Amino acid sequence: MSLILAPMEGLLDFVLRDILTRVGGVDRCVSEFIRITDTLLPERVYARLVPELLHGGKTTSGVAVRPQLLGSDPVCLAENAARVAAMGCDGVDLNFGCPTKVVNRHRGGAALLEEPELLYQIVSAVRAAVPARQAVSAKMRLGLNDDKRAEECALAIEAGGAGELVVHARTKRDGYRPPAYWQRINDIAQVVRLPLVANGEIWTVADALACRQASGCQSLMLGRGMVANPGLGLGVRALDDPQRQAVDLAWQQLVPLLHDFWQLVCLHLSVDQHTGRLKQWLNLLRRTYPQAQYAFDAVRRFHDPADVNAWFRGLNLDGMPSSGALGRKELSPIE
């Protein structure tokens, strides 16, 4: 079984990958897509987009990060795959699932699911360009507007030489609306032999169990569910380890991670992104933590990072407001 942290454009960047992999339970991450058009990108661009490449291709907690490429030109994708592979990652991932209109309009992401032959050409070219010791994997949706060609697309990706395929169990037309059609992953598993990873609408441990049963996959990719509940990976791990008791990550344990996230955001991202990124994460955390509602309500009115710093200083050991200002060191670390 593998648990993989999903690529999510505008949300799961290197900052949040760093924080979530500190909690544990994740075997590997996939970066947000890197758009490839007709240019061989220089190493400095890859290092900016996936800074883990400067540290052995891993997060600070030692979890591998696999860069994901998006495009439609097999030759250019192969050249770029060879370059990023040479920077020291464990492999290269290919995006055949992005549902956004601008990407699809430029023949990228899920739009390629209408062209199985092109999928084969892309995977084959990239596999030939990447050293055999490094993996080539892919992620696809069930289709563009319907799922009629899902098996055909998976077979094309397998024939091209991919070693693993993540299937997001919705079409582009479905977007992120529930439900995810996990059973269709099981259908795909009947016609391909390469390892499949199930993805889509896994918010809880119960969802993970249901997804496994419906899809037939033991390996899962966790996206928004892991962002909303950073302890989700550990909870899923407990399903397979009778010696491990599932323990929810308490709000008091999460607050130091929120603070560290804030510090990294301020260090690495532009100032116009600072408060927005914190609000974005708190908004999703409200699904799991009642305390996150207070935090979101308090922070949503802030635009000046100094106000956020003052708010953090005013939290007590329970991660709630106190009458006195508490310093960062008084926040209990995660165990």
What does this structure look like?
The protein is an alpha/beta fold and 335 residues long. It contains 14 helices and 8 strands. The chain has an 8-stranded parallel barrel, surrounded by 5 helices. The longest helix is centred in the C-terminal third of the chain and has 18 residues, at 251-268. It is globular, with a radius of gyration of 20 Å. The model is unreliable at 323-335 (pLDDT under 50).
What's the total number of strands? 8
Alpha plus pi helix count: 14
CATH topology (fold) name of the largest domain: TIM Barrel
Instruction: Describe the main β-sheet briefly.
Output: 8 strands, parallel, barrel
Q: Tell me the count of domains.
A: 2
Q: State the low-pLDDT regions, or none.
A: 323-335
Shape: globular
- Rg, rounded, reads 20 Å
The portion of residues forming beta strands comes to 5-15%
Order of helices and strands: EHEHEHEHHEHEHEHEHHHHHH
| Shape-level CATH architecture of the largest domain | Alpha-Beta Barrel
Mean pLDDT, to the nearest integer, reads 93
